[in-house]
Amino acid sequence: MVLLIHHPILPQCRKIRLQMSEKKILFVLKEEEPWKLSPDVYKLNPAGEIPIFVSDGQVIAGQYPICEYLEDISSENRLLPPTPGERAECRRLMAWFDEKFYREVYRNIAQEKVFKRFSQGLAPDSKILKIGLNNLKFHMEYIDWLAERRNYLGGAEFSLADITAAAHLSVIDYLGDVPWENYHYAKLWYSKIKSRPSFKDILKDSVKGILPAKNYANLDF
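Predicted structure:
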């Protein structure tokens, strides 16, 4: 049995949960608050970051090592494409969301609305939120562009590119900030992704004191 130390509002953690679910790896979750990590986290990962994967004495810290490890050990439902060029495109999109989307959107919306509230007891800064929402429009246009031209974001088949994008976007969707009505193809793509069995538990996520948006768990929006 695998233990994953996580928090539901972190896209890095959602990404690993989705990947393990797609691979039919059984796991249990232990929740840690990222703004107040316990000493146990630092014992397992001196960097003080989650997710952390624990299995049979094997400890792997950080989303990138965990993600690659899961692909290495499990032949069930390969989530990286078969050719080098396709894998490069998949990894490019993973980096886009893990780095660019995270920096430009997640930090300005989720950290303002959630982290600041629980770590400092402060209301979000409207100026920072506005920056995040403006940045979100750019990213939604790009997702819409990709979804119009491809079956999935990374190409013809479902891959870690879709998992990574959906992990990040689902947090913003939980908070009710995605203007789906303006992005037809992105909406169709996300509906297809969140209808997958692996997404079922993600749609049940809750953050104490913050209710999900009205249509968060609605497969038909």
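Summary: The mean pLDDT is 96.
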